[in-house]
Amino acid sequence: MKYRILLVDDDKDIVEFLTDYLEDEGYEVTPAYDGREAIIKAQAEEPHLIVLDIMLPFVDGFEVCRRIRQYMAVPIIMLTAKSEDVDRIIGLEIGADDYVVKPFNPRELLARIKAILRRVYREEYQVRPIHEKISIGDLRIDPERREVTVGARKLDLKPKEFDLLYFLALNRGRVYTRNQLIDRVWGRDYLVGPRTVDVHISRLREQIEEAGGNPDLIQTVWGIGYKLSDE
Question: What's the mean pLDDT in 173-194?
Fold first, then answer.
């Protein structure tokens, strides 16, 4: 399975060049040429990373980033023709993970893409101490013992059910699509589909409810995926 990159820029020459360059490096690239198209394709394609120009027709890159951040945790690298600190600050404040100033060496962009993908999909959710316990109301998660309790009752969770609940708990309030959860929890080498996520979520809710907890702690974001409530 290849990493999917959504490449957004209104300069077709840049898009064509970068598409060829990144595909030669083994990535799957989907182009978009304006802000509206970028928002639609981000939801439809569920890319692993977005390269996003700031100056776009219809909807600028800042607004695209804001809207995508409402329903996706996908990493975003912003491209800007300006070097002012204000653009960088705004981009980072609204959720961008990195930025590159035009003109740039494609090898620099490639290096940043590789670094972010490596961090997000291999290391991001391993940097916390393995013994970090999480408490959410009556729900307690002990990753060292791999135990989940609601009040005094221990849940009987399968390994991936625990991994899924712990991942969502570590990232409370962030919405993840089913494919993103498969990437993060099962890994790209597992041959599972979106229905597998639904089944695991359903079982988690049932066990939480049976133990006297609130099953709505795990929320469905219709048309997108799931999140753990941050309220």
Answer: 78
Cα 67 vs. chain centroid, distance in angstroms? 14
121 lies in the same domain as 174 = no
Final residue in a domain of this structure, among 73, 108, 125: 125
One domain for residues 10 and 120: yes
Confidence of residue 80 (pLDDT cuts 50, 70, 90): confident
Question: What does the CA dihedral 62, 66, 71, 76 come to, rounded to 10 degrees?
Answer: 40
Token pair of 147 as six digits = 């135990």
pTM of the model: 0.58
Q: Please give the residue range of the domain that contains residue 55.
A: 4-125
CA distance 163 to 73: 18
pLDDT in tens, 87-114: 667 767 777 888 888 888 999 999 999 9
d(CA 94, CA 183): 24
**25 and 47 housed in the same domain:** yes
